[in-house]
């Protein structure tokens, strides 16, 4: 089962992000119901591994905290792959991520060694992104990169299943883990 761990976004945040997406000059916007902040992508895992992980995630104790956004960014440079809303630096988020990573290790889930860059993916550009796409995206970032986005409270996180379909991924909440 393809799975990930993420923080849900409140409705007022997703509404603000969807308004930004409506202005995009290119790319495939992420569906409103799929907007989230990924803490860890797990890839394909067995039900037994996910059950062990669930037990470990239930032991995480962190106080609720607030998050804000620090602008927009792009992964991929001149060949953009992803447009994202960058999440501002927050020690409580780094602590939660560290605890989730520890739970992954204890459950036997191999963890990617990539640096954690908290963000919300807004659009994907695929391998067909052209220099023209990059130029249009650069103008979009110049015009909208500092659009204020609402901060929000983080009161929990979830374990999700991701099923790929021709129309895009569909996410199903497997378990929710409240903070506090």
Report on the architecture of this protein.
The protein is α+β, with helices and mostly antiparallel strands and 180 residues long. The protein has one domain (2-178): Cyclic phosphodiesterase (Cyclic Phosphodiesterase, Chain: A, Alpha-Beta Complex). It is built from four helices and ten strands. The protein has helices at 11-21, 47-57, 91-106, 131-144, and strands spanning 2-8, 28-29, 36-44, 65-67, 69-75, 82-87, 119-124, 152-154, 156-165, 168-178. The strands form three sheets. A four-stranded antiparallel β-sheet has the order 3-1-9-10, with helices on one face. A four-stranded antiparallel β-sheet has the order 2-7-6-5, covered by helices on one side. It has a two-stranded antiparallel ribbon with strand order 4-8. Strand 9 and strand 10 (168-178) form a beta hairpin. The radius of gyration is 17 Å and the shape is globular. The mean pLDDT is 93.
Number of domains: 1
- Biggest β-sheet, characterized? 4 strands, antiparallel
- From the alpha-carbon coordinates, what is the Rg to the nearest angstrom? 17 Å
Going by CATH, what is the homologous superfamily? Cyclic phosphodiesterase
DSSP summary: helix tally: 4
Number of strands: 10
Going across the biggest sheet, name each strand in turn: 3-1-9-10
Q: Any idea what the shape is?
A: globular
What portion of residues belong to β-strands?
A: 35-45%
- Class in CATH? Alpha Beta
How much is the average pLDDT?
Answer: 93
Order of helices and strands: EHEEHEEEHEHEEE
Task: List its traits.
180 residues, alpha+beta, 4-stranded antiparallel beta sheet, Cyclic Phosphodiesterase, Chain: A, 29% helix, single chain, 36% strand
